[in-house]
Design goal:
single chain; 412 residues; alpha/beta; Rossmann fold; three-stranded mixed β-sheet; 17 helices; 14 strands
């Protein structure tokens, strides 16, 4: 992966067999999660739990989760999507279709705090692991299910991938240029958002379980998560009584808020208040426009957006981007360079934060990856890279055997 030589990734490399136990001081230490998730939304959810201390036991079929070999871009045989979403997990291979596999998984559930899955609704029940059965096995279990359209309703069994949810939620209808087809966001926002919301729901359910001693059931429809994401835009539609147009990089209620072009590259300005406009005018050498008719108020500027943008672009193309960014920073006007992904990874603030990490690769060596966003008591919580298929099967099942034998000894 390309990155600036002046911005090395922070090394977080440990032996896979021991690293997952190094959760001292992290808030979810001691929470065991049985992870039936696959592809993106579910693995994002469980990775966040693992990042902050939970023990994640990822259950995989003998052939491995399908996301391991999806797509066209792989590193040492593993799909980059799998590598991005599965750090801090133990991989345990269990054949759920076999009697022995069923016995093993039920034994694991008895030891767990949380079970997470993102199958279509009804799949876990067909496997003999529906919510009622989970509670029979473990009366204090937290059960969490993420699905595209929720557990009930006419579409509950419909397949829903990220772009489908971006389209159905309305996000695509307001993304892109006004004279072109709607566009999805450049990142899988439905998958990632659903993973984050799912992790939040699980943490709240664990707190509720610990308080009441009762099992908890968490259900998340990804379409619901996307509707929530759009709350600001939906509120505007409800207020004005009509749909919003696509505005490219513009904003329906602010101006200047757009991509602008300096002599050597693009950058963005986000001026949401008249105060910002006044500061901008003084900083870039057009103080008269701070109070000029048609420009002075945000209502005027939104109505006259093409004139405002043309004024600024004609000015900005005269000098390099660094000049304008420095001037805008000095005036405390929200702005930033329009970075490519490679440039973003090499950005000064990204480098200083240490969010790009170097972790072990299941086939050997290391990979660079985007780490957990939160610091907890100064630590980001990444303790190991994504697991090799079945790398922890023997150790986890041996632990179950030891526990079972200890239980027999106590009963004797």
């Amino acid at each position: 992966m390309p990155r600036s030589a002046s911005c090395p990734a922070v090394a977080v490399i440990f032996d896979q067999g021991a690293a997952v136990n190094r959760a001292d001081g992290l808030p979810l230490q001691g929470i065991r999660v049985i992870d039936f998730t696959h592809h993106a939304a579910g693995p994002m959810c469980t990775m966040l739990l693992g990042d902050y201390g939970a023990e994640i036991i990822k259950i995989e079929p003998p052939e491995g989760e399908a996301f391991r070999t999806s797509g066209t871009v792989r590193v040492k045989g593993e799909h980059v999507g799998f590598l991005a979403l599965n750090r801090n997990k133990k991989s345990v291979v269990i054949d759920l279709k076999s009697p022995e596999g069923r016995r093993q998984i039920e034994a694991l559930i008895r030891t767990a705090d949380v079970v997470v899955e993102n199958f279509r609704p009804g799949t876990m029940k067909r496997l003999g692991l529906g919510y009622e059965r989970l509670v029979e096995l473990n009366p204090r279990i937290v059960s969490a299910a993420i699905s595209a359209f929720g557990a009930t309703g006419a579409r509950s069994n419909k397949q829903g991938l990220d772009v489908v949810l971006q389209a159905m939620s309305g996000l695509m209808s307001i993304t892109g240029e006004p004279d072109r087809d709607p566009l999805p966001a450049g990142a899988p926002v439905a998958d990632i958002l659903s993973g984050v919301v799912g992790a939040l729901g699980i943490v709240m359910a664990v707190i509720a379980r610990n308080r009441s001693g009762q099992p908890q059931q968490v259900e998340l429809g990804m379409l619901d998560a996307m509707i929530s994401l759009l709350s600001l835009r939906l509120q505007q539609v409800l207020a004005v009584g009509h749909d919003l147009p696509r505005m490219g990089s513009g904003h329906p209620q602010a101006c200047p808020w757009d991509v602008f072009h300096a002599a050597d590259g693009p950058f963005v300005i986000a001026a949401t208040r008249d105060e910002y406009w006044q500061r901008l005018c003084r900083a870039v050498g057009i103080p008269d426009y701070a109070t000029r008719e048609g420009y002075a108020t945000i209502v005027d500027r939104v109505a006259n957006r093409p004139r405002v943008n043309a004024l600024l672009n004609d000015l900005f193309k005269q000098k390099p981007r660094a000049h304008w960014l420095k001037a805008l920073d000095g005036a405390d006007v929200p702005n930033g360079p329009l970075n490519s992904l490679t440039e973003a990874m090499a950005d000064e603030t990204v480098c200083e934060s240490g969010v790009m990490l170097e972790v072990d690769h299941p086939a050997g060596g290391t990979i660079t990856t985007a780490g957990p966003p939160l610091r907890f008591n100064g630590a980001r919580g990444a303790r190991m890279g994504p697991p090799g298929l079945g790398a922890h099967t023997a150790a986890v099942l041996a632990e179950l055997l030891v526990s079972a034998n200890a239980g027999k000894g106590q009963r004797a």
